[in-house]
Amino acid sequence: MAVIEIKGVAKHFGSFTALHNIDMTIDDKEFMVLLGASGCGKTTLLRIIAGLETPSQGEVWIGGRRVDNLPPRQRGIAMVFQNYAVFPHLTVFENIAFGLRMSKTPQAEVERRVNRTAELMHIEQFLKRYSGQLSGGQRQRVAVARALAMEPEVILMDEPLSNLDALLRLEMRAELKGVLAESKSTAIYVTHDQVEAMSLADRIAVMHKGHIVQAATPIEVYRNPATRFVGGFIGNPPMNFLPAQPSGPNRFSVAGESFGGPSTGRPLEFAIRPEDMTLADSGGIRATARVVEPLGPHLLVTADVDGTLFRAVVESDARVVPGDRLNLVPLPGRARWFDPETETAIPA
């Protein structure tokens, strides 16, 4: 059972606090993704779990055992780095076998594990080659296979696909998710790429300025962001936000249109995802189209709503050109509300 428990972990670099009292539990065999912009603390947290960084305070537990006072090799983990860290003077076989050799694993077991993980990562035909004869994607597969060959309780990955091109990342994401499900390891994956996070994770922990601001399933994070930051960070394009003024009991005026909302009696922010808007002949939010981008099956329309940029995704056969006056109607139940002072979600 490789349950990971982070208890009150903080990290200070001089006067700068990189992590603020992080509390999080990652279940056995769960695939957790730490998602956030550069500098949010996600890699620092991963390095603390790995033992490559010492927490200023707090505890790290793996499988019911406290490990923050143990060296990395005693924590039952394997790590995959962004830069592959594949040894150029070793064959693919020996690269994968490296950790097993260091732990003095018998030769028969080394061969079994190397061959098995090479097959899982579809690189069995390259076992006799050197890394200089491999592509970037193949080297990344070697790095993942080397980690999996250790049969770790926990596997940690720090942006392992960021150096690959878009099509190769797509292919590797699908393979990685299947391989890790089969390996039965608990996985923590760091990325700033929300598409990677949404497609890979069982749960996503969104980080911002050293805090975990929401930890939930991908669909929950997407549909019900806990904070304005999460709504604006997740999604491409991100959520739209418009000021909402109280206009009656549980009613708010948004860009001249009345919507039902929370019973707060104070100004809020109305939030809606671009794909949750439809074009109508009348009513709704009135906007002026500024830019129209054809994106295959749909159009991305960037419009002006009372001086605020507002994006809507509409059907590709919609006849919209810059300068058109639009009536944009939210899909039922898709609007969200945020407190402009605390920037936290307000239930409708």
Largest sheet, in brief, is: 6 strands, mixed
Determine the number of helices (DSSP H or I, runs of at least 4 residues).
8
Summarize the helix and strand pattern as letters.
Answer: EEEHEEEHHHEHEHEEHHEEEEEEEEEE
**Cα distance, first to last residue?**
39 Å
Helix content: 10-25%
Largest beta sheet: what is the strand line-up? 6-7-8-3-9-10
CATH architecture of the largest domain: 3-Layer(aba) Sandwich
Average pLDDT number: 91
Overview of the molecule:
- With 348 residues, this protein is an alpha+beta fold.
- It has 2 domains: 4-233, Rossmann fold; 240-338, OB fold (Dihydrolipoamide Acetyltransferase, E2P).
- Helices cover 24% and strands 35% of the residues.
- It is built from 8 helices and 20 strands.
- It has a 6-stranded mixed sheet with strand order 6-7-8-3-9-10, sandwiched between helices. A 5-stranded antiparallel sheet has the order 13-12-11-14-20.
- A hairpin with a 2-residue loop joins strand 9 and strand 10 (211-216).
- The longest helix has 18 residues, at 166-183.
- The radius of gyration is 24 Å and the shape is elongated.
- The chain starts with a strand and ends in a 10-residue tail after the last strand.
